[in-house]
Fold these 4 entries.
Entry 1:
Amino acid sequence: EIVLTQSPGTLSLSPGERATLSCRASQSVSSSYLAWYQQKPGQAPRLLIYGASSRATGIPDRFSGSGSGTDFTLTISRLEPEDFAVYYCQQYGSSGRTFGQGTKVEIK
Amino acid sequence: QVQLVESGGGLVKPGGSLRLSCAASGFTFSDYYMSWIRQAPGKGLEWVSYISSSSSYTNYADSVKGRFTISRDNAKNSLYLQMNSLRAEDTAVYYCARSRHGADDYWGQGTLVTVSS
């Protein structure tokens, strides 16, 4: 099973700042089958990025994904008030799927 | 628009069984893999299972293998999760999700399963 480790656990930033979230895999994620999700309290997760760098339908271009192999990054170029939430990475390249433990982006 | 509506959650005793359902609409259900993902109270997301579009292939997390069974009825646009031998650690909100290119692009609002005596 591929283990995904996200860092930091919590990111305290102000609106307008840049957020950089990391997701590290215990072994290489095949074909960059890495996705990022956003979850707000009381809501279902929302797909942001798939294939490591492709934005899902309707996702603003301030969200971008990069990386390959074992190291992946989600960048939010300028935080909007609605972006404060928990973010999860997920790999779907191996026979099973796994999620990271999440990074909370909170208002500083 | 794509809609996924889960049902069947509730309170069940340890060792008991429960069957979750997910009603899909707004897309051609038979074209897509479907997944179940759960989230224990205050915790992160845990993938549970997925099923191929024609039901020919299923896969499960080790934590539920042998106890849970995923299935679907393409004629009814419905996804199911049969959960047997339930444990306290199975307590969670269970989400169904549509899978596209392997990622889960639409999610339902979830149904709460509580396993407690």
Entry 2:
Amino acid sequence: NAGVMQNPRHLVRRRGQEARLRCSPMKGHSHVYWYRQLPEEGLKFMVYLQKENIIDESGMPKERFSAEFPKEGPSILRIQQVVRGDSAAYFCASSPPGQGVYNEQFFGPGTRLTVL
Amino acid sequence: DAKTTQPTSMDCAEGRAANLPCNHSTISGNEYVYWYRQIHSQGPQYIIHGLKNNETNEMASLIITEDRKSSTLILPHATLRDTAVYYCIVRVSDPNDMRFGAGTRLTVKP
């Protein structure tokens, strides 16, 4: 059973370009979460999605950032008009459906975005 | 904001037990204590969680005080591969309630 997959692992963009980060959750998982980690800091929650629905986007910047989790295919975190401050590691996590205490999140290896 | 307080860093000798403390004095009755770790540049890895009873699994033990205001993660025989940042998180079962603080940077030394 493959774990959470993210691609690309490293992404370099120039200021003003768009960045697309992909996340394939573990098989059978229908909850996806995106986190951002700036250098030397802890992870910051960005958004929580279920299939075709955004459940909580309270951690997403109001502009330029968007996320989706379509019925088919991976979850996408999109950053438009990137700026140097967007340089960070972006982690995706997934968990199985249903509530309960055993819904620990399984994390992917992350995408490291560098904005030149 | 994270609801926990952890030391910034700790050292441990290889083969010895590593005891990582966490204060969560404002924890509420329905919040669990979770521990994750992040080995350099990798995604966080789940270690263990508990409510009020002590817990043990193949990776670690979790000791929670009777008043639940603090807990200790114990790695019984630390190895060099246990060098990582360890995060203590308190949360209810809501999936979107994972709030990471700065964690404790554990360095296991030979």
Entry 3:
Amino acid sequence: GAGVSQSPSNKVTEKGKDVELRCDPISGHTALYWYRQRLGQGLEFLIYFQGNSAPDKSGLPSDRFSAERTGESVSTLTIQRTQQEDSAVYLCASSSTLAGVGELFFGEGSRLTVL
Amino acid sequence: ILNVEQSPQSLHVQEGDSTNFTCSFPSSNFYALHWYRWETAKSPEALFVMTLNGDEKKKGRISATLNTKEGYSYLYIKGSQPEDSATYLCAFWKSAGNMLTFGGGTRLMVKP
């Protein structure tokens, strides 16, 4: 597709379940970012990929969060044993360059609700 | 921790009014400043990427200025229209950094 695609768009899950969120970036974009926005808060950086590598995982809020990227394309964000505080909109973005002068192209987000 | 602050948090204006918002960011280690517009149920969309002190950029009725020495940027909307209603986000990229740090956003509502 022409833009960044995320799935699912909405996910309701029970506390303690695992969830996977998927991101299809724009073809050819080497940099991929995950952010989240919890209710009433700003965008919070989670992780970025340069190609298939994630040089800095310090933004992940806990060891229940993990992410991978394959083929310099699709990325999956996995949250294990979900907690209510994980409820948020998870946004993926891609960029043709890693450096900050390249604009980020965002998907529409995956809204996660943990009951 | 980088502090990127936006003000006001929200703003209600009448159609036709001109308005402006502020983004403040660290004045040291500056590399780039981004502005995005995020409409409800859509994805954030880039408005401007600014890198040079004194930069002024314009897109239609929207313009932005940048002062890297004092650490602020202004976004201006001339003659606001209802379709301008959105959250406006600024984001800071520091030199040798690897991510954008976003401010909390300014939510603009334009009444017809």
Entry 4:
Amino acid sequence: GENVEQHPSTLSVQEGDSAVIKCTYSDSASNYFPWYKQELGKGPQLIIDIRSNVGEKKDQRIAVTLNKTAKHFSLHITETQPEDSAVYFCAGPGAGGTSYGKLTFGQGTILTVHP
Amino acid sequence: IAGITQAPTSQILAAGRRMTLRCTQDMRHNAMYWYRQDLGLGLRLIHYSNTAGTTGKGEVPDGYSVSRANTDDFPLTLASAVPSQTSVYFCASTERPGRTEAFFGQGTRLTVV
């Protein structure tokens, strides 16, 4: 299946700072790159995604950038707020063959935003 | 409200017992997934199904089985529970296998004693 590596595992920032989380993937045929946010006691929820035909996508304070050559994509959160504190996951689906549809997640990043 | 529902919300189970975790979605999504989430280990894929009638093994399938008799339901069965299966279990679905937004249930907290 798709090998997805996420870094860092923990990230601590001051309110107002920016946060960046990076995910690398192994399957060059991958074409869908999502980021999920998980709050305590809840299931993950999609916050932003990007497809392989674009290099960057923004939605207010969050953005995702994609580097297909280097096979990595990153989540950028600007002007962080305490409510951004959560666990963030990237995901990488198996692109084809026996891995088709095998939706695997990165190891997760615990983001803490200090007031 | 459309979405994905898991049952039970939590369960304490004696080791050696059989248990089925239920998952139902009403979005007519083709693909469904089961994950376990242990403290500090993220989401690990147990089994998945790209469409009704088909299933596949994920990263940690041992000790678990699934079936996909129809589009809406994707139950996960522990044939003989062991303490290492203590975890929070999440069911999820996507419209297309792995390539669209995944919707998650609220999770089932299972404790095997």
